[in-house]
Each structure stands twice: as C-alpha cells, then as structure tokens.
Amino acid sequence: MEISASAVDFFEAQFRRQVGEGDFALNPFETLALPHVRGRVLDLGCGLGNLSLAAARRGCNVLALDASVTAIERVRRAAAGLDLRAERVDLAGYRIAGEFDTIIAIGLLMFMTKHAARALLEEIRTHVAPRGCAIVNVLIEGTTYLGMFGSAPYYLFGPRELEGAFAGWDIVQSRPDRFDAPGASVKRFATVVARNPT
C-alpha cells in the first residue's frame, strides 16, 4: 500500500513551486508544534522540512521522512551541519523502529486508506517514549476541498477521532481549524499534541 501517485504528484508540484519561490516559512500547524518538539524526533511526511530544520537548529536529533523527491533533496541541502537525516520512503507502509521523544505527522494520514491511517497512528502511539509527545494533524469530515486526493483513496477523520486515539494520554493541545479553499470549498483540520504519561 503506497500513498497515491496523484497525491505525491500534487505535492511534488507544490514543493517545486515553493522551492522556486524560496517559500520556507512554517505553516500554522508547524508553528503550533515547534514549542513541543524535543529530543529524538521523527517527522513523518516532513514536506520541505521546515519544522524538521527548526527542530534540528534547536538541538534535536531529527529523522525526516517523505515520499517526495523534491522535498527530501531540499531537506538534505538545508541540513548541512545539523543533526538531521532525511530519507525518501513509502509512508503508507512505514513501520517505526525504536522510540522517539517526539513523533510528528502533520497533514499526512488523510492520504491513506482508513486502515493504513489508523495503523500508522497506532505505530505513532506505540513508539513515543515515556513523557514524549505525539503531534498529529489531519483533515476531518466537513472538508469539501478534495482536489489533492485525485481519484485515490483517502480518509477524513471524525471531528474528535484523533483526540480519542490518544485516550489515556495527557492532551496538551487539541484544536480544530477551518480554512477557505478554492472554489468556495473548505478544509477542516484537527490537530492534537498528546503526551505519553507512562
């Protein structure tokens, strides 16, 4: 099971444009995440690596993963001298090895089938170290902007499903967001920062 070629192509085009324009600002979800990032970090679906690079500059040891060639090439170029390793991988079938103090998945899980998204979410839960944080952001039901998915399978989470997946954890932050999108459509997100209490 791979993330669909249409989704990868969508982001390849977006990342090429951003690289050409030098657009490397943290997005609102990355800005929300950064204060909670520490220690050994796994960034799943790192995109152009803006958050990974910011974390490494703060002294974190970062493993940044994405399916985009453009993204990983940019991260590797920008990471010179930092404790950051960037790799291109199939994230839909990815299995996490070892524990991390912070695991990030911003804007990733919705590009998978329901089964694959829930399986990777469980991988995240299982591999966050004690007192470590999971930082996860997904599109939720009510989203009407679906162009980036093409004809491939995707999964819109329930409005409280992400928070429910971290039942028993300390919910540091849980935030819904709504953004206008092309064609009078909308994107609805849920973002959760959850700390492993064990």
User: Could you say which structural class the secondary elements and strand pairing correspond to?
Assistant: alpha/beta
- Helix fraction bin: 25-40%
What's the alpha carbon Rg, rounded to whole Å? Answer: 16 Å
Which geometry do the CA atoms define?
A: globular
- In percent terms, what proportion of residues is strand? 25-35%
Instruction: Report strand order across the widest sheet.
Output: 3-2-1-4-5-7-6
CATH architecture classification name:
3-Layer(aba) Sandwich
Low-pLDDT segments, ≥5 res = none
Number of helices: 6
User: What is the CA-CA span between the terminal residues?
Assistant: 32 Å
Integer count of domains: 1
CATH topology: Rossmann fold
CATH class: Alpha Beta
The string of secondary-structure elements, in order, is HHEHEHEEHEHEE
Reported for the largest beta sheet, the result is: 7 strands, mixed
Query: At the fourth CATH level, what is the homologous superfamily?
Result: Vaccinia Virus protein VP39
Care to count the β-strands?
7
Give structural attributes.
alpha/beta; Rossmann fold
Task: Write up this protein.
The protein has 198 residues and is an alpha/beta fold. It has one domain (5-18, 26-195): Rossmann fold (3-Layer(aba) Sandwich), CATH 3.40.50. 30% of the residues lie in helices and 29% in strands. It has helices spanning 5-21, 28-33, 50-57, 69-78, 114-127, 161-165; strands spanning 40-44, 61-66, 84-88, 100-106, 128-139, 170-181, 185-195. The radius of gyration is 16 Å and the shape is globular.
